[in-house]
Design a protein that fits this description.
Layout (H helix, E strand, L loop, with lengths): L4 H7 L1 E3 L12 E4 L5 E3 L7 E9 L5 E11 L4 E9 L4 H12 L5 E2 L6 H14 L2 H7 L6 H23 L15 E2 H4 L23 E9 L2 E12 L2 E10 L8 H7 L10 H17 E2 L3 E10 L5 E10 L7 E2 L6 H4 L4 E6 L5 E7 L2 E10 L3 H13 L19 E19 L2 E17 L15 E7 L15
């Protein structure tokens, strides 16, 4: 290709902000020079410190709060009604153009050569034999179990034979049409060569998982471009992913980058981190996904020896606010993945992987008054006083002795938005205060506290800043 990924990333990318429609009542921080009122944003909050030690009412949990520069609470914040936003064919075209320029995209995933299929069939023909099944399962199966396994293997063998009848000695790339298809189309294990699959340019019918698969080359590197749209009972997923191909022969992408000197044996400098965050914000803009706030951090690859790259996380900006609190991560808070951007790259900016999940579009906007900082602190204290050992988030394995105590260190307090369900696949981004940190168990093996060594930071409390109530399930989220 004509340009390296690094050059493409620097050019500028992103998702366009959906309009908020509706009337806006802006929160204010006082009059500007011309007498107009300015909107309050997360950049306008004055620094504030909170240092305190306390113990829960039953004495089980010790809490240490030492946080510098907590943001002061504004008088008002926006409440934003949002809905899941499907990935469309037009989005795919703009995003792939932003990343790969004029490089062509080809269908990815389901085609095998005649030689590859012949090798698979030879192995599968042995797999359907009764003696082979008994050997595979060490002769522990009933006759009914054996017949069920044989039937499944025979069905897969029939599929491979159908594929062979439609194969060629060499694969001829199929130009991508940027359309979504049922996931079965893209799988080598389920692709029906005689079926005319339906296509979708955006959101498929309810209950249908529609995927997009393509690949492209840039500067000698092969990348896969995948996207997915799905809405079914209790769950939805709209995602877009680009990732570097892993070379053949079992060589991981990490090791491949070592061999081409893209991963570094030194952590990124502060300037490299700032550049990576800026590149990601520009990339998202050019991709057509709007304005995002991105932050970069050093990523360590556990190769031998260890090498380093950069991880960038991003949050969509809406009404001057970008921080989203995940809170009840385990329940996915209403059935969909949280909106998030993540990108891994080498210190020189070369793309390794990029992912967007849980995309949302705004429907309406309003402002709401907030409780005071003192009221928020009192609500947090009341919640912490009620903590018991049962609130631990480490998830002790069965049979491990119960801890004798729990210590929680609050290391971060943020003001942001939490995605609260308001109906079936409808949400509001509501203003919250989130207390985050680490916890240590007493009376258990040291290994049970290992999560702290991996940088796990948990959302211990998520407080609704409209009334001081606690968000349910708020100890599930972590980074």
């Amino acid at each position: 290709m004509k340009r390296m990924i690094f050059s493409l990333l620097i050019l500028a990318f992103a998702l366009s902000l959906c309009s908020c429609g509706q009337e806006r009542e802006e929160g204010t921080i006082g009059p500007a020079v011309d007498g107009t009122e300015l909107p309050v944003t997360d950049a306008d909050l004055e620094p504030f410190s909170w240092s305190e030690e306390l113990t829960s009412t039953n004495g089980d949990v010790k809490v240490s709060i030492h946080v510098e520069d907590c943001g002061m609470l504004p008088e008002t914040m926006p409440v934003i009604a949002v809905n899941p936003m499907p990935v469309t064919s037009e989005m795919l075209r703009q995003a792939s153009s932003a990343i790969f320029g004029d490089a062509p995209l080809y269908e990815d995933g389901w085609m095998l050569t005649r030689a590859e299929l012949e090798q698979i069939i030879a192995s599968s023909e042995q797999g359907v034999l009764i003696d082979r099944i008994r050997e595979d399962y060490e002769d522990t199966l009933s006759e009914q179990d054996i017949e069920e396994i044989r039937a499944r293997r025979q069905a897969q063998l029939d599929h491979w034979r159908e594929a062979l009848a439609n194969s060629a000695d060499e694969l001829v790339p199929i130009s991508s049409d940027y359309l979504f298809r049922p996931w079965e189309y893209w799988s080598i294990f389920s692709h029906d060569y005689y079926e005319d699959y339906p296509t979708y340019s955006g959101d498929p019918p309810f209950g249908i998982e529609a995927d997009f698969r393509a690949y492209a080359e840039n500067d000698g590197r092969l990348y896969h471009i995948w996207a997915s749209n799905l809405t079914r009972d209790g769950f939805w997923n709209h995602s877009f992913t680009v990732f570097l191909d892993e070379p053949e022969g079992g060589i991981s992408a990490d090791k491949s980058f070592i061999s081409t000197a893209h991963l570094s044996d030194e952590p990124a400098s502060g300037e490299e981190l700032r550049q990576a965050a800026q590149i990601a914000e520009e990339l998202l803009l050019k991709m057509g996904f709007g304005t995002w706030h991105c932050e970069a951090e050093i990523r360590e690859f556990y190769t031998e020896p260890h090498t380093y790259g950069i991880r960038v996380n991003g949050w969509k900006e809406r009404e001057g606010w970008s921080q989203q609190v995940r809170g009840g991560l385990a329940s996915q808070s209403g059935g969909g993945y949280y909106e998030h951007f993540c990108m891994d790259c080498a210190n020189d900016g070369t793309l390794i992987e990029l992912e967007l999940r849980g995309l949302l579009e705004e429907e309406s906007f309003k402002t709401t008054p907030l409780i005071s900082w003192e009221e928020a602190m009192n609500a947090a204290r009341a919640a912490m006083n009620s903590w018991t050992l049962a609130d631990q988030v480490h998830g002790l394995a069965f049979g491990i002795a119960q801890p004798s105590g729990l210590t929680r260190e609050i290391t971060e307090i943020t003001v942001g938005h939490f995605r609260k369900p308001t109906g079936q696949f409808t949400y509001e981004l509501i203003p919250v205060l989130c207390l985050r940190g680490t916890e240590y168990l007493e009376g258990v093996p040291d290994s049970m506290n290992k999560l702290n060594e991996y940088g796990r930071v948990f959302d211990f409390l998520v407080i609704d800043l409209r009334d001081g109530s606690m968000i349910e399930g708020d100890t599930c989220g972590y980074n």
